[in-house]
Q: What sequence folds into this?
């Protein structure tokens, strides 16, 4: 029986977001190269011990499937730190999770087999793998918050017309709207405080960086979003329940900013430091984003714990600079 998620007695609920851990088979590497899987595993263990989260979220690219000799083994290794700590966890999938021989549907079925995974089976007739919602109970055992997990896909399936990364499909958006309305009806017609997790950032991530005050870094030249805006952000604004979205994908980005009342947040890459001109630089040390929900409030706190144990609560301010013509 899966553990029910519940706010603590002090009214808080702590989530650790690990992004782009990209596990693979280390024995494929030269013995002289760093053992990134073991380094990443040790980092996750330190963060879990320090934060003692109520939930761990793997925000996509759990494995580097096209470089892994055994993707299923690599996935089990990637989530083992969560399992061994007996902490509830769930994963969404990224573009690298299904580049190998194991499809993402199989990867989602694999996560469901783990004892401490709180993910749910996919809804019928909805695109992707790993679309589900889990709720967090309040002190009176009522449903007090909702966490949406959405498959943002991998690459465009119509590359002859639209290239680049995939986008959240219309039936997924319809599924989210339906689940949100269902939870709202069960909550005295008041939208439940909610967060949403997926891997590939929405096009609005570029909008918030270009036109709003943000906090953190965008060392990558842009946010690597799909070319198609399918309307997921608009649906969340219209519903009014999602307070924040959380993504990975771009290893050099860790900023957050607020657009139309929703905080668009990157995690912190858990495996990769920044690379400038192909050279490793510790501009953005590895780490994890931490999220703290407060029961009964339409807000959350967030900070970053870095690989040296330091906690970054206040990130540098970025003033909007507009957008250059393409």
A:
């Amino acid at each position: 029986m899966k553990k029910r998620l519940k706010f603590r007695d002090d009214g808080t609920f702590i989530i650790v977001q690990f992004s782009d851990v990209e596990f693979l088979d280390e024995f494929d590497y030269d013995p002289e190269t760093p053992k990134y899987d073991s380094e990443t595993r040790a980092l996750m263990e330190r963060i879990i011990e320090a934060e003692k989260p109520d939930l761990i979220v793997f925000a996509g690219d759990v494995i580097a499937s096209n470089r892994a000799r055994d993707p299923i083994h690599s996935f089990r290794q990637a989530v083992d730190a969560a399992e061994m700590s007996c902490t509830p966890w769930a994963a969404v999938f990224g573009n690298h999770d299904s580049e190998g021989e194991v499809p993402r549907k199989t990867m989602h079925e694999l996560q469901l087999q783990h004892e401490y995974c709180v993910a749910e089976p996919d809804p019928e007739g909805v695109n992707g793998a790993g679309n589900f919602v889990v709720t967090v109970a309040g002190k009176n055992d009522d449903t007090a918050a909702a966490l949406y997990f959405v498959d943002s896909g991998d690459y465009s399936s119509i590359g002859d017309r639209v290239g680049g990364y995939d986008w959240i499909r219309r039936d997924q958006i319809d599924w989210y709207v339906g689940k949100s309305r269902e939870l709202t009806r069960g909550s005295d017609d008041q939208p439940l405080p909610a967060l949403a997790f997926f891997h590939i950032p929405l096009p609005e991530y570029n909008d918030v960086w270009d036109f709003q005050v943000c906090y953190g870094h965008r060392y990558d030249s842009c946010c690597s979003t799909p070319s198609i805006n399918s309307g997921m952000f608009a649906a969340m604004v219209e519903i009014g329940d999602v307070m924040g979205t959380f993504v990975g994908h771009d290893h050099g980005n860790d900023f957050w900013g607020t657009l139309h009342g929703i905080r668009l947040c990157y995690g912190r890459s858990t495996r990769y430091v920044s690379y400038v001109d192909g050279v490793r630089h510790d501009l953005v040390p590895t780490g994890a984003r931490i999220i703290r929900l407060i029961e009964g409030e339409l807000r959350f706190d967030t900070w970053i714990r870095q690989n040296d144990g330091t906690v970054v609560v206040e990130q540098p301010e970025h003033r909007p600079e507009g957008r250059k013509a393409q």
The longest strand covers residues 287-294.
